Amino acid sequence: MSRARIDSLTALAGPVLLVVAVAALGSQLNPVRQLEFGEALVSVAIVVALYVFVGNSGVLSFGHISFVAVGAYLSGILTLDVEQKNLILPTMFGVLRHTHTSTALSLAIAALAGGLFALVAGIPLMRLSGLPAGIATFAVLGITTNIISYWDKIGPGVTALSLVPTNGVWTLMVGALIVIVVAFAYQRSRLGRRLRATREDPLAAQAAGIHVHRERLYAFVVSGALAGFAGGLLVHQLGSITPDQVSVELTFTTLAMLVVGGVSSLSGAVLGALLISGLNSFLADAEQGVNIGFQLTLPTGTRLVAIGAVMALVLILRPSGITGGRELRLPRLRRAGASRRGP
Amino acid sequence: MTFLQSLIDGIGLGAVYAVVAVGIGLVFGVMRLINFAYGELITAGGYTLALLSNAPAIVAIIVCFAVVVALALLQERIAFRPLRGAAPATMLIATFAVSFLLQNVYLLAFGSRGSTVGTLGGLNTAIAVGSLRIRWITIVATIAGAALLGCLTLVLNRTMIGLQLRAAAADLRTARTLGVRANRVITAAFAISGVLAASVAVLLTVQSPLVTPDYGVSVTIFALVGVVVGGLDRLWTASLGGFAIGFANAFVGDLLPSASSQYLPSVVYGLVILVILLRPSGLFAGRRATAAERV
What is the dihedral sign for C-alpha A78, A83, A87, A91? Predict the structure, then answer.
C-alpha cells in the first residue's frame, strides 16, 4: 500500500475507532444505558448521512429527515409480523401487509427507497442553492411528514408504528460503521472530490468542466440512501416510531450536531453526534441526581435549555465547529510536515 | 359567498404574515442573517400579554413592546454579534440553537400547557355584512399591518437611520467605509424587527389566545417560506410573499373539500416548491440578470 493510501486510511480510523469504542463501552453497561448508547450510534448514522450531502456540497438541506422517515417506516413495517399487520393495519397496501423480511433485508430496502426518493426530489431541486434550496428541501420534509401522518395506505398515520423488533448496541454499531465507510469511500472518490471542488469555488469548478448540478445530485442520492438506511436503524433501535419523531425537531438537532462537530469533515459529523448525544444523556441523568465528585441535581427541564445553550455557545466560540472542518488523524502515523488540511 | 368569506379571512391572516416577513427581511437585509429565533420574540410577547391579562390593555401592550424589543436587542448583542461574518450555514444554525434555547426556557418557566391571553379578546366578535361575518380583528389586523408597513416605509425613506439601513442593506462594507456605523444600523434593524414582532404578538394572540412554548415557530416557518417565495432581496417583495403565504393558507384551506383538508400543508408546500423552481430569486423579484460575483 502506498504511503498516501495509508495516510488517507488513517483519516477513516479516527471515526471508526471512536464508534467502536462507544459501542464497546455501551455494551458493558446496564440496559437503560445501552439504549442511550444505541441512540447515540443511530444519531451518528443519521448525521453522517446528512454530512455526505451538506458537508461535501456546502448546500444546506432541511429535507434529509424525509429520507430517514421513509426508511424508518418502510423498514419497520417490513419486519412486522404478517398476522399482526393484517390485524392492526388493515387499510395498508397489500404488498406492505403481506411481505415480511429480515431486519438486514429491510435495511437494504430502506436504503434503496431513500436513494430513490432522493433521486426523484433531487432532479428538480439540485438546480437550486442557498436559501431557496433550504426552503425547497424543507418543503419536501413538510410534505413527507404530512403524508405519513394521514395516508393510511402506507402506514399507521399519526398513531405510533410499534412492536418493531429491536437491535442491540453491536448491531447498531455495525450499521453506523457501514454508513461511515460508505461516506468515507464517497468523499475519497472522484465524485466526492469533484463535489468538494464545487463547494470551495463553484465558478472555478465549472470552468474546470465539472457539472455542478449533476455532482450535487449524485451526492444527494448517496446521502438519501444512507439516510434511509439510518432511518431503518432508528426504528430498530426505538422499537416504535411516530411521524413527529422524524420531522422538524430531528432535522434541527441533527443539523446542529453536524455544525457543532464541524460541517466539512467526517470526523466532525461523528464527533458532533456523539458529543451532543452524550451531553443529552448526562443531563438527563443530572435531572435525576448524579454524583460527579459532588451530588449534582438539576431541576427537571433544564436538559434541553442546557443543550440549546451549549450548541449556541460552541457556534459563537468556534463558528466552524469543534473539529474546525479537519479530520481527526492518528497522530503517530502522521508524517512530519504533513499537517495539510483534511480532504 | 363562501368565496368572499375565504377572501376576507385570507387578507386578515396575510396581513399578519406580511409583518412577520418584513421583520425577518429587515434583519436579513443588513446582516445576511435569517433569524429563525424571530418566532420566539413573538412568543415572548404572547407570554407578556398573558401574564398581564388583568392589567389595562394599554399597559399590557406597552410592556409587551418593551419586553420584545429588549429581547431582540439581547439576541443581537449576545448571540449574533459574535457571529458576524461567519458562514451563512453557521449563522442559520446558531439562530436555531437560540430558538431551541428560548423555547425550552419558556417551557421551563411557563410549562407546556400554555397560558391564555385575555387582552383585546373583544375584537373576536364579528359584524355581519349580508351573509358575511367579519371579525373585528380581521379589520384591525389589516389596518395595523398596512399602517406598520407604511410607517416603516416612511422611516426607511425619510430619516437618517433609514437611509443608513438602506445603504447597509445594499452593501454593508461600502456603507461602513462611508461612515455608517455597523453596530448602530444592525441594532436599529433588530429594534425595528422587535417592534414588528411585538405588534404581531398583539394581533395574533387575539385570534389564537393560547400561548405555548412553540407558539411562534410555525408562524416563523410559514413567513420564512413566504419571504423566500416572494424574494428576499427587497422588503416589499418579502412582505408580499409573506402576505401571499398567509393568504394561500387561509384561502386554499377554505376551498379544499373537507375530506382532503388534512393534506393542506402538502398542497401549500407543493406550491412553494413549484414557485421556487420556476422563480428561484422570488415570485415578485424583477427579472434581473444576476451574474455570479467573484469577490
Answer: positive
A307/B108 CB distance under 8 A = no
Distances (CA, A) of B192 to B23, B27, B273: 7, 9, 30
Give dist(CA B67, CA B63) in Å, integer.
6
Q: Cα B55 from chain centroid?
A: 26
Q: How far apart are the first and last CA of chain A?
A: 19
Mean pLDDT, range A92-103, rounded to an integer = 86
Cβ distance of B96 and A316 shorter than 8 Å? no
User: Could you tell me if B41 and B71 are in contact, meaning their C-beta atoms sit under 8 angstroms apart?
Assistant: yes
Q: Please judge whether A305 and B265 are an interchain contact, meaning their C-beta atoms are less than 8 angstroms apart.
A: no
Query: Does ipTM surpass 0.90 in this model?
Result: no
Q: What is the mean pLDDT of residues A150-163?
A: 86
The answer to whether the CB atoms of A308 and B97 lie below 8 A apart is: yes
The pTM assigned to this predicted structure is: 0.85
Q: How far is A50 from chain B (nearest CA, A)?
A: 14
A residues 46-85 lying closer than 8 A (beta carbon) to B? 54, 58, 60
What are the cell numbers at B226?
A: 413566504
Q: What does the alpha-carbon distance between residue A272 and residue A320 come to, in Å, rounded to a whole number?
A: 12
Taking CA atoms, A80 is separated from A73, A99, B81, B184, in Å, by 11, 9, 51, 61
**Would you tell me how many other CB atoms lie within 10 Å of the CB of residue B291?**
6
**CB-based contacts of B52, cutoff 8 Å, min separation 6:** B59, B60, B63, B64, B119
In this complex, is the C-beta atom of A160 within 8 Å of any C-beta atom belonging to chain B? no
φ and ψ of B284, to 5 deg: -105, 0
Nearest CA in chain A to B263: A146
Dist CA A285 CA B108 (whole Å):
17
C-alpha distances in angstroms, A67 versus A9, A140, A145, A262?
A: 29, 10, 11, 22
Backbone angles phi, psi at B292, to 5 degrees: -65, 140
B200: Cα within 13 Å, side-chain hemisphere: 34
pLDDT in tens, B200-210: 999 999 888 89
Residue A95 confidence (pLDDT): 84
B127: which strand partners? Answer: B134
Query: Taking CB atoms and an 8 Å cutoff, what residues of chain B touch A304?
Result: 100, 104, 107
CB atoms within 10 A of CB A236: 27
At a CB cut-off of 8 Å and minimum separation 6, what does B227 contact? B21, B24, B25, B28, B238, B241, B242
3-state helix, strand, coil in chain A (%, to 5): 70, 0, 25
Which residues of B lie inside 8 Å of A (Cβ-Cβ)? 34, 79, 82-83, 86-90, 92-94, 96-98, 100-105, 107-108, 221, 224-225, 228-229, 232, 262-263, 265-266, 269-270, 272-273, 276-277, 280-281, 292, 294
A252 or A329, which is more confident = A252
